[in-house]
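Below is how a single chain appears once it has passed through the pipeline. First comes the sequence as given, then the structure the pipeline wrote out for it. We keep one example in the README because the format questions we get most often are answered faster by looking than by reading.
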Amino acid sequence: MFLCYNFYVVPKILALKYWPLMLLTVLIVAIVGMSRYAENRKASATADTQPCSPQFSVSPNDADKSAKNTSNPNNSPSWVETFTWPEGVTAWALLFTLLVIAWQSTETRAAAQASKASIRLQEATMQQWVDAESLGCYIQTPPAGKRDFPFTVNLRFEAVNNTSYPFDIQKIVTKIGMWPYEWEVFVVETNVTLASQEKSRSKRYAFYVPTQSITEEQFRQGTVLTINGEVTFKNCLGRTQTGYFGGIYRCGQIDSKQEGIFQYLEALGIVPERTNEKENPQNPN
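Resulting structure:
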């Protein structure tokens, strides 16, 4: 069974790999055959258009010799002359050159496909992303001598590189929402490299968002807010990439202090549909 499988699979693999070479061989044979056929037709047409030559009587012995020469197997067909020596040197050289070119193109295509697969595998192992962690929040102190300063809560984040290679952060956009279709948008443009070492401090980049969407009463009692953010960075391959963060966060004051809690709320998943079913009791009879 294994031999039968190899007998079926191996020719299929070779055909898929070297089909240009086989196609070229078929085309060359077809072209040579058609060219010889055209030459024979042309020679026959030329002979038919020539004036009739005088008739000579042929003796029976000469007729027998002519028939023998015609049926002689040593008289090869006309198309064989294309590949005989020395007339067929040019044809063989052309055929060999075309076959070599076809073989080289097949091998080059296979090498290019293998190279692309290797590049994709390397890019997959070097894939990168950025994580944004919430650190806490605090009430911003009004500047000295400034009145009617709006109530502002600073939400603290850190962008973290948890991959095996460094990358450069270029831009951070954070959107804060308390009400539908109303957003505060904050943009931070920078150019900082985050290292890849696990315990290195340089793998983290701290930033904060001074939101005014939260009222003082909401902050005292605790509230939730929606955050949508994106981090634009240049990965280790030199390509610009965008990572996203956000969700629903809990924010509120702790023990009447300036600082407060700022925590990401884990999603519970898709809410399933709830239905009620009642089965009829079976008939005891």
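Helices lie at 2-17, 19-49, 60-70, 89-125, 216-221.

See the next section for the split statistics.
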